[in-house]
Design goal:
Elements lengths: L23 H15 L16 E8 L7 H14 L2 E9 L9 H11 L5 E4 L2 H4 L3 H13 L3 E4 L4 E2 L3 H34 L13 H9 L4 H8 L3 H12 L26
Parallel strand pairs: 1-2, 1-3, 3-4
Antiparallel strand pairs: 4-5
Helix pairs in contact: 5-6, 7-9, 8-9
Length: about 270
């Protein structure tokens, strides 16, 4: 079975072409020329191997409800018609910022992509998918691993051919550079904070661990002990388990009462 099919008989041969009604090879070349003109140089792998058009999904997003999402949908539907795609589903996110990685429409799109419900994703622009370079790369990389072509109307770039894969590689390099720059800025800020005497990380919890263990072993409930000392129930259990295992760091010796009036300074430990 051929890997591509001819389109409807709307492709006319060039005016300078000879009489080739009986020459299949020349007619096929003319169809290929017309197809390349229609698709602006995109390869014929947009046609399913089983003789039908590719199934496409449309994704549109607007940040505020004052905007109109219909303009994006109209342009993407027209793009799908020009490319010969069969639109299976339209996914929308209305009033949601592109900085948010979790969006109902985008999450549903990725879930359907994992189920192989379509082969092409059409978007109006890159920033409709994500404002963050890292998040955009994650979406494009997952779609590419699933065999789904990503096509942007404004940038006129898709990931079906070598140039598309080169584009993904460049975006990956930019994302890696962005992550490295952020890391360097964070480390520089931490070094400056340490020089200023600021403690880095979570402050240590100053509690009487031995008293917590004693209260628990005396019969107090976990909830009562945790509320009394302002700690979590899990920490109470952890301290009791360590004390039972012989960890002296969590169980201190019982305090001793010393009568300073009847003892010498040496006996009192001065």
């Amino acid at each position: 079975m051929p890997t591509h099919i001819a389109y409807r008989n709307t492709h006319r041969l060039p005016a300078h072409a000879p009489n080739c009604s009986s020459k299949l090879s020349i007619a096929q070349n003319a169809i290929d020329i017309s197809r390349r003109e229609q698709y602006n140089g995109h390869s014929t792998q947009y046609i399913e191997n089983f003789g039908g058009p590719l199934r496409a999904a449309i994704y549109a997003r607007i940040s505020t409800t004052d905007q109109h999402i219909d303009s994006q949908l109209y342009d993407l539907r027209e793009l799908a018609r020009q490319r010969g795609f069969e639109v299976q589903q339209e996914y929308q996110d209305v009033g949601i910022s592109g900085r948010k990685a979790r969006r109902p429409g985008l999450d549903t799109l990725m879930a359907d992509a994992r189920q192989k419900k379509f082969s092409v994703v059409l978007v109006a622009a890159f920033d409709r998918v994500a404002r963050s370079t890292r998040h955009f790369l994650q979406v494009v990389d997952e779609l590419d691993s699933l065999g789904v072509v990503f096509l942007s109307r404004r940038e006129n770039i898709d990931t079906s051919g070598p140039m598309g894969r080169l584009f993904v590689t460049l975006i990956g390099s930019i994302a890696e550079l962005e992550a490295d720059l952020i890391r360097e800025r964070v480390l520089a800020g931490m070094r400056r904070a340490k020089l200023d005497g600021v403690r880095i990380g979570r402050a240590p919890m100053i509690v009487d661990r031995a008293a917590i263990v004693r209260d628990r072993l005396s019969g107090m409930t976990l909830t009562t002990v945790s509320k009394k000392w302002g700690v979590s129930r899990s920490l109470v259990c952890k301290l009791v388990n360590r004390a039972s295992a012989g960890d002296k760091g969590s169980m201190l010796p019982q305090p001793q009462v010393v009568d300073l009036a009847q003892s010498s300074p040496a006996a009192a430990g001065w």
